[in-house]
Amino acid sequence: MAEPKPVSPMVKGVLEYGPVLAFFVAYVLLKDRTFTFGGEEYSGFIAVTAAFVPLMVICSGLLWKLTGHMSKMQIVTLVLVVVFGGLSVWLNDERFFKMKPTLIYLIFGGILGFGLLRGQSYLRVVMEEALPMQQEGWMILTRRVCAFFFGLAALNEIIWRTQSTETWVSFKTFGLTIAIFAFFMLQGKLFQQYGIEKTED
Hints:
Elements lengths: L8 H22 L3 E4 L2 E4 H24 L4 H20 L3 H23 L4 H6 L7 H28 L2 H21 L2 H7 L7
Antiparallel strand pairs: 1-2
């Protein structure tokens, strides 16, 4: 497998998080508007989703071209964005797009859980180079991440089914990001206890 090419962290950040922030800004601006196309009315949410899907595809393609690499997680996420975003626009039903994070976290949590049942840490496969740890540490972290993903899936279902679209968009844009950041920050003690320092030749 080809090694990822070096790319500016700023460029990488814009391509990875730019579409999500653009979705939030566009929704805030267009949430109260209605658009008519082909004799059918579409809410601002659906219109923004229709623009978000191709933007996500373009940014993912540029990132792949620049780095020469796309992780399985990025591929699965992109496929679900296209499928469920497309269904929301095609059927004019925002529920499909709101269910997307639930499925993403269920899939990733399920994969990690399957690995745990086999006594393996699939998380280690994708993160070991950036975060060298002892095997016991990886198993503990994988169990925690697995449970965390299932928790996020449940939380997303609760939010989109009980709260307004505006609340869900804010939760999706900022709440999930903050939750993931906070989760890994809270693993600091685990990283210290089981971390392996890299030695240079």
